[in-house]
Amino acid sequence: MSFRIERARLAQVDDLRGIERAAQELFRGHAAWSSYAAAPMDAQALVEAISAARVWVALDVGDQVVGFVGVAIEDGEAAIAEIDVLPNHGRRGIGAALLEHACAWAAESGYPSVVLGTLSDVPWNAPFYARHGFEAIDPKQYTPALVAHQAYDRERGFPMHLRVFMRRRLRASPDSWTRWPAPAKLNLFLRITGRRADGYHELQTVFRLLDWGDELRLRVRADDAIRRLTDVPGVPEQDDLVVRAARLLREHAGGVRGVDIEVEKRIPMGGGLGGGSSDAATVLVALNHLWGCGLDEGALAELGRQLGADVPVFVRGRSAWAEGVGERLTSLALPRRHYVVLDPHEHVPTAALFQAPELTRNAPRATISSFVSGETTENAFTPVVRERHPRVAAALDWLGRHGAARLSGSGGCVFLELRSREQAQAIADRCPAAFTAHVATGVAVSSLHEALGRHEGGSNQPETAG
Ligand SMILES: C[C@@](CO)(OP(=O)(O)O)[C@H](O)COP(=O)(O)OP(=O)(O)OC[C@H]1O[C@@H](n2ccc(N)nc2=O)[C@H](O)[C@@H]1O
Ligand SMILES: Nc1ncnc2c1ncn2[C@@H]1O[C@H](COP(=O)(O)OP(=O)(O)O)[C@@H](O)[C@H]1O
User: Any idea which residues are catalytic in this one (predicted)?
Assistant: First the structure.
């Protein structure tokens, strides 16, 4: 193959918009031309889709972006929001490979089907998709999202007699790869109220789960081997929390159970965003389902606690007020907020910070209402981290110019809370080269639990509007 497919990066936004414009040229003279030309792809929506890791690009041997596919999630199914290939790279199987790539991702993620809207009379549209297993959807079976698309098309003067929505049903076989998200967290505040006899600290914190994080692929094996197939820099296979979580669950559940694990790391390690803990929780929850162990959430959270203080909240999958070492959780309904998360590329060792003599570890107890009123926002680690890690201090100072920047967990990532995603993106766009900025939105229910619902088949049929 003279091209390869990989996840799109934000730096490629302009390339993708250029490809869309070039691909549209093929419609000049067609009845759909004017409505396509009048409504190019929305840049903000594209940035969000790339941040959500649902856009893939095809690159030629010279690393030029020659095509892309973007997937949206609508009414519980995957939707091809956009797929384009540079016209001078047509007829080389690039579009077909991108389409199959997106469908494979959706199948592994547990989505029951993939939908798209296209033109019935254009050879590289509906007939192409039909060759790839898509069938026209009866308008009486349209989902609410398709009804909305139809209304929008009508409004923009699209030739409706040529419009067709198509669906491909997906089937996941039990021995194929499955895909599971492992979301990041923020600590919206953190207070240390005491030290226990075992050296661990009593703390109070609010965990806010995000719509952004790592992704894991799991494939059940016929033997009892537990293998991590991807390299995680600095983390040997045997020490990886994903491997330790799988072993712990197997010890508990018994039987001959094995698994291959791939980890797509995005959450910076040692960044205070709980990446390792979330990966571990995802393995516990996903393998409990795939291996058919039948443990309930409480039992899984208890296994999680043995792996790390932050694991239980990811197992439970709800933003929460936490006490104890972080395992006593009370779900908290938080307002919809968006975050700029700044990674100063500084690994902050959690254990060393908890040992710091200058750490305030006897703070008075806070109350949920003092947090909700906005009075309690401090993080006990902030002065210690500022002193010991100048890069984190610099990140706090830069982000602090835009609002009340805070440290997450023991750092080194810092964040700022905002009311709109656009505001967050605008600040992220100005991030100095020394740091990396991510934009994320807080969620009420973890994407892991949504994935579990899909894999269990609970929400496995798209809803119809009728
Ligand atoms: C500080 C927090 C806040 O959410 O997050 P991170 O910055 O790690 O993301 C957590 O409490 C970290 O949880 P986690 O990273 O799972 O910690 P663990 O692996 O259990 O422990 C790492 C080390 O931190 C210390 N530790 C951890 C939790 C706690 N309540 N008291 C402690 O004293 C212990 O010395 C332990 O050896
Ligand atoms: N799958 C994993 N992902 C990240 N870190 C891991 C993993 N398994 C083990 N670790 C170890 O856990 C440490 C803490 O990682 P992480 O949970 O990402 O950060 P934090 O606790 O600061 O939120 C890492 O430095 C690494 O040595």
Answer: 185, 310
Question: Quick check: CB of 277 below 6 Å from ligand 2?
Answer: yes
What is the spatial distance between Cα 403 and Cα 425, in angstroms, rounded to a whole number? 14
Pocket of ligand 2, candidates 269, 282, 379: which has the most ligand atoms within 8 Å of its Cβ, to mutate? 269
ipTM: 0.95
If you count them, how many residues does the chain have? Answer: 466
Query: Which one of the ligands is nearest to 233 CA?
Result: 2
Helices 241-253 and 297-307, axial angle in degrees (round to 10): 130
pTM: 0.94
Domains and CATH numbers, the chain: 3-169 (3.40.630.30), 178-448 (3.30.230.10)
Active site residues: 185, 310
Three-state SS for 94? helix
The ligand with the least distance to the CA atom of 205 is 1
For 280-312, the pLDDT digits (tens) are 999 999 999 999 999 999 999 999 999 999 999
The answer to whether residues 146 and 152 touch, using CB atoms and an 8 Å cutoff, is no
